Amino acid sequence: MSLRTSRPARAGQYLALLCYLVFLAFPFLWLISTAFKPAPELGSLHPTWIPENPTLDNFRQAFDEQPLLRAAANSLIAAIGAGIIAVVIATPMAYVMARHRTRLSTAATGWVVISQAFPFVLLIIPLFLVLKNLHLINTLWGLIMVYVVWALPFALWMLVGYVRAVPPELEEAAAVDGAGRLRTLVSVTAPLLAPGIVATALFAFITAWNEFFFALVLLKTPEKQTLPVVLTHFLGAEGASDLGPLAAAAFLATLPSLVLFAVIQRRITGGMLAGAVKS
Fold first, then answer.
1. pTM of the predicted model, to two decimals?
2. Residue 211: C-alpha distances to residues 114, 156, 216 (Å)
3. Of the candidates 266, 258, 206, 259, which has an alpha carbon nearest to the alpha carbon of residue 28?
4. pLDDT tens digit string along 86-132?
């Protein structure tokens, strides 16, 4: 009886998952279709999924109209810098908060979660004034600092969970075997935290890569603008848009995140107990 009832439930779960995947994939698939459609098909009253006459003219026009490569380089610098710095700062903080539980660390963890609820508009004026006093307005370093500050609370919250998932008994066993504190952290704890560190770095990278508001306010000259800001240049007056080149540029802007996730997804999902085996 239980097997019979579990099969419909499992089929329902797979159906719900399939519907969710279709819901997520629809905008991206439509974006790809639009990027390869010529202008007459973009204005057609009967749009089709597959372009009847696929073309690369939208990509050529996008690169001709806007400095996409320079903007992508700026976004890449800001995203990589924010990801690395956020992980370097958050990892030791998370270890201390997870291993030394006090009222102060509990309150700090709660504040980390609550701080994510603050809207951007409440922070932009203080951040702008601070960066202005530091002469970091219209610089990528200033933008990286903002991205680190914005990503750090959630990165810290993520890593605290990963550290708590590592059994303290493993560190105690290493200490009994004669390993010092530093050796234990490097040889036992760090390998177990590797998937969490990679996932946190990926989160910080994607957050910085897709961010628009801070980049729009803090970067003034076209040479320093990031890719999300440059994409708005395809929008004309009164809501008019150059749809084909915009879709082509937006499609290219999504590729780094997809490629990065595809490359490191095995690192995220596997190897949680890689450091638990003594050599």
1. 0.80
2. 20, 19, 9
3. 258
4. 999 988 888 888 877 777 766 766 776 676 677 777 778 888 888 88
